[in-house]
Write a structure and sequence with these properties.
Length: about 180
């Protein structure tokens, strides 16, 4: 099982079924803030929905195609971070993340993304990590900007969110740049 201690307060741990209830309540408890940018929120209606998500992430891990980890802050589940998938042929991946609304503004996500980039580029030996965020999602965009990612462009109408398309900003980090 993947566990990564960032500091004495923050730990990343691969999600497992024992986390289902806590993740479900974190998700629905933060629905108002998360729904603006995450289309899956409306489909999370029961603990069973969260269990299905966690089972899919366990399958993803067993197929060596990425990992989804809970972000634990002072023993409480605060959010989720993960690789969407790993492209082993091109040695690249992309990272997605979210925090429960009670945990925003504490630096948790910046530290968690940094740890995941270290894991991808150093431990897994990948060459590229990408982060995409909606143009108007300034909090999410601030993470790669803070960590020195290169802004590589805008993808127009990249994602359908409920009733409209949103453009995405694309940020990339190469292993050679990260090691500097």
């Amino acid at each position: 099982m993947f566990t990564y201690a960032i500091d004495d307060k923050i730990t990343l741990k691969m999600l497992d079924l024992r986390d289902s209830e806590q993740l479900f309540y974190l998700t629905v408890g933060s629905k108002n803030s998360l729904r603006e940018w995450l289309p899956f929120i409306d489909y999370t209606k029961t603990v069973a929905d969260t269990e299905n998500f966690i089972q899919s992430t366990m399958k993803q891990f067993s197929e060596n195609n990425g990992i989804q980890a809970g972000i634990w802050y002072e023993g409480n589940l605060a959010g989720v971070i993960g690789f969407h998938k790993i492209d082993w042929n091109n040695k690249s991946t992309s990272i997605g993340y979210w925090l429960g609304e009670d945990y925003v503004g504490n630096g948790l996500m910046t530290k968690s993304v940094k740890a995941f980039v270290d894991y991808a580029l150093i431990d897994l030996g990948l060459n590229r990590v990408e982060i995409r965020a909606a143009v108007e999602n300034k909090k999410s965009r601030a993470i790669p900007e803070r960590l020195g990612f290169t802004h590589e462009g805008t993808i127009r109408q990249s994602e359908w969110l409920y009733d409209h398309y949103v453009d995405h900003e694309v940020y990339g980090m190469l292993a050679s740049d990260w090691k500097k």
